[in-house]
Specification:
Layout lengths: L2 H10 L20 E7 L5 E7 L2 E7 L4 H12 L7 E2 L13 H11 L6 E7 L4 H18 L7 E7 L27 H13 L5 E6 L9 E6 L3 E6 L8 H10 L3 E2 L12 E2 L14 H12 L9 E6 L11 H4 L8
Antiparallel strand pairs: 1-2, 1-6, 2-3, 3-5, 4-5, 7-8, 7-12, 8-9, 9-11, 10-11
């Protein structure tokens, strides 16, 4: 299963996020760094996070019961102390004297309850120790999650900007994987958007819409705050009527925003709350966005879209100019 990809990962993983950071000019006050390695076909992944002196490595437990059991069986045979189940909070923990400890006890007593597992090392630990962790991570990805070394894709970013370089693995960043300058089709656009959202800086905004002379007739927008907020509008110009528009949007996973009321500036539909930055989970946002433009707004091609992008606050690259290349669609220059 892709021995070359696994060999590259084994060679370089011990050095992930170990390099010295440049002086932080983000203005954020903190700027952790991240790496994601995923299987391009299954989208299963491993997440690396550097926050302070710790490198944390996280894998998610598959939803399928048989796949989850396979992962657990591989985790059980890893060296003692290498992996820990991530605490699973519950509502009852809120009133406990030490809710974090209670949640941790629960998953240690019942490992099948864990939805994520973690390992890692301290920055500067011996290379031999880091290599041992890397060997265990590869075993878990390959044998526990069924990831294929030939399908591995690499992305890196911080809270302030996406990164470059891929340690010899194929990159997810469009310009590094030599994607066409112009986005070629919806599948290409979905892949580009997935990378752009995964690496979207803190307080970054991406707005996608159809070209128009006035206010947005139809758009999908993303904001990276504490979570990835996602909203869309355009019922009055989509040509389906309000009831049919709402039905189509709900089928795609959108819900009518409770704060959006008739007579307001726009009626808004919201997507499921997603996560970017640390341990991202896009909750299907790229695919839902493509389906919204093609099935609801009846847009024929990604080149019929324009985008706007910016950051709230005084930041480097306030207009996220790197997206001009990476998204491969025109910027709205109104």
């Amino acid at each position: 299963m892709g021995s070359q990809g696994w060999d590259v990962l084994l060679k370089w993983m011990p050095f992930f996020l170990e390099e010295d950071e440049d002086a932080d000019e983000s203005g954020l006050g903190w700027n952790p760094r991240f790496i994601q390695v995923r299987d391009e076909l299954t989208d299963r992944r491993v997440h690396f996070a550097q926050q302070g002196t710790e490198i944390e490595v996280l894998v998610a437990v598959p939803e399928d019961a048989a796949d989850a059991e396979q992962l657990l069986s591989v985790l059980r045979i890893q060296p003692d102390g290498t992996w820990d189940p991530v605490p699973l909070p519950s509502e009852s923990d809120a009133t406990a004297p030490d809710p974090q400890w209670r949640a941790m006890q629960r998953v240690h007593q019942q490992p099948r309850l864990a939805r994520e597992w973690s390992t890692g090392w301290q920055r500067g630990e011996s290379v031999d120790h880091r290599r041992g962790v890397a060997q265990s991570v590869v075993a878990v990805l390959r044998d526990g999650l069924g990831m294929d070394g030939d399908r591995l894709r690499f992305a890196t970013w911080s809270m302030d900007a996406p990164g470059v370089g891929s340690y010899g693995l194929p990159a997810d960043r469009p310009s590094e994987r030599q994607a066409p300058v112009v986005c070629s089709d919806w599948a290409d656009f979905e892949a580009r958007l997935s990378w752009a959202l995964t690496t979207l800086p803190w307080d970054g905004v991406i707005n996608l819409s159809t070209p128009h002379p006035g206010p947005d007739p139809c758009f999908v927008q993303f904001l990276h705050g504490r979570q990835l907020f996602n909203e869309a509008s355009g019922w009055d110009v989509a040509g389906h009527g309000a009831a049919e528009f709402d039905r189509r949007m709900r089928e795609l996973g959108w819900s009518f925003a409770p704060h959006s009321v008739p007579g307001g500036a726009a009626l808004i539909w919201e997507g499921p709350l997603a996560k970017v930055g640390f341990n991202p989970n896009l909750e299907g946002a790229p695919r839902r966005t493509v389906a919204t433009f093609t099935e609801v707004f009846t847009v024929g091609h990604p080149q019929d879209l324009v985008f706007r992008a910016f950051r709230n606050g005084r930041r480097r690259d306030p207009e996220l100019r790197y997206l001009d290349i990476e998204l491969g669609i025109p910027r709205d220059v109104r």
